[in-house]
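step 3/5: co-fold with 2-acetamido-2-deoxy-beta-D-glucopyranose
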Amino acid sequence: MTVAALLLLGLGLLLGAEGQCFFNRTQEYCVCYNLSQESMGSIIQCLAATAVEFRGGELEKYAAFPIDDLDPSAIDMLSSLLIRKIIFGDLLVPMMLLSRVLRFFSYTQVQEVVFDSCVFRGRGDWAEMAGRSLPISALSFHNVTGTPVGSEQDLSGLGTWLQALQNLSVTASHVTRLPCSTGRLLTALRSLDLAHNSLGDGELPTTFCTGAFPELRALALQHNNLTSYGSVCESVRLLRELQQLDLSHNRLTAGLASSCQWPAALRVFNLSDAGLDRVPEPLPPTLEVLDVSCNRLHAADISLSSLKQLFLSYNLLQAVPCLRSCPALDTLHLDNNSLAELPWGELKLLRHLRRVSAAGNPFNCSCQGAGGLQALAGAGLLGPGWPQAYTCSSPPSYRGHPAQDVPVSALHCHGPAVIGALCAVLTLLGVAAAACLLRHRARPCRRG
Ligand SMILES: *[C@@H]1O[C@H](CO)[C@@H](O)[C@H](O)[C@H]1NC(C)=O
Ligand SMILES: *[C@@H]1O[C@H](CO)[C@@H](O)[C@H](O)[C@H]1NC(C)=O
Ligand SMILES: *[C@@H]1O[C@H](CO)[C@@H](O)[C@H](O)[C@H]1NC(C)=O
Ligand SMILES: *[C@@H]1O[C@H](CO)[C@@H](O)[C@H](O)[C@H]1NC(C)=O
Ligand SMILES: *[C@@H]1O[C@H](CO)[C@@H](O)[C@H](O)[C@H]1NC(C)=O
Ligand SMILES: CC(=O)N[C@H]1CO[C@H](CO)[C@@H](O)[C@@H]1O
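step 4/5: write tokens
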């Protein structure tokens, strides 16, 4: 009971009306709704969980709740808890309480804290945490108002605590920028997710100022208000370790080829659904994965020697781009374009190619067209969706038929030529037979 009460106090969860916790043993997951003082006994079952979710209630009245220092036995108990992840949902969180409560986390083994649909109020008093470090490696805010990482004052106090933080996510929270100081404090951060916000080109330079996020590997900026490919490049140029960048679901214009150099470590680049009518330049030269699906591309001249996966689905391509300058390619997605043919002769030269998908294209099932598809399928390269999603649009006699069913045998496709050749062979055989017969008359053939 002491442990449970302590946990409750520690997490600040003496909430509103009737509440109850539910523990799922298979998932080691415990969820508590509107916990109250009366029902807090029910939190005991959560002590066996590795993840605990607290949903609903009102914390405001506990903002000034006195929380004393812990005695050694309480600290022992906190450090023996199994809980690794805590989720706070649908809560109004007074920052004052948060700053007090976070202090307890430094004694636990909690690694991940999530705030989902929370509203933060007021200012915290981070001085209380002086001298202690927080073990949390992942922190996320989703659909929150007034996140502490968006405010300079709050961060200056929180910063020393968060120096070990590796993953930070602030999504769907109307964020327009992060203060420069945030990036400079989060020196260990590997992954930053700012998806579904309102970041614009103009605010990026502040967010990624000199010295910010020196260890950042993955940056997600999808669903924001970014418009210029060149200025995004200028803004993230200083993130030397950046390997993955997601700019999908923005309204980018390729503009003139810029002289900006992308971080040299960049390997995975997502430009899906970014409003592009051509492939922007320059691309990071050592890319391994490039997603430019769901744009308005009519052509795609891409020359990237390390590229392994290329996503070109949902564009307006009428021909498969020349891929000779992408010799490492192993996966090619071409679904839902306007392709009439897949050039088997060229694709088979890509020696690492393992997977091609091209469903939903208006295929020309001429001998050459259907033959190319069938050859790719025969080599085990085509799919998923083969054969049902590969239908012919032309010639009229095959419209709507699966390309797999179109006969492409030599006799069928090259009728006159094949018959001509056959005749020639037969004639030759006839001549040979006649000669043999003549010799047989003169001198018997050894073998019939
Ligand atoms: C626990 O979670 C699993 C997986 O989601 C689910 O199949 C099961 O029904 C849950 N158990 C209880 C008691 O809710
Ligand atoms: C976002 O959070 C607010 C409370 O701040 C809540 O009313 C709303 O339903 C949440 N929206 C979504 C999509 O979860
Ligand atoms: C997006 O950017 C445009 C101009 O760049 C601006 O007019 C608009 O208000 C921005 N939208 C949001 C939601 O911030
Ligand atoms: C790129 O982003 C889109 C949309 O956000 C997503 O569906 C897709 O899986 C991503 N591509 C890759 C290669 O991860
Ligand atoms: C289909 O391909 C054949 C031979 O490659 C060509 O002669 C014909 O014009 C093409 N049909 C259409 C509709 O493009
Ligand atoms: C060629 C083709 O199949 N185009 C389709 C691509 O996807 C859009 C939307 O799903 C369809 O409307 C097109 O017909």
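step 5/5: annotate
The two ends are 103 Å apart (CA to CA).
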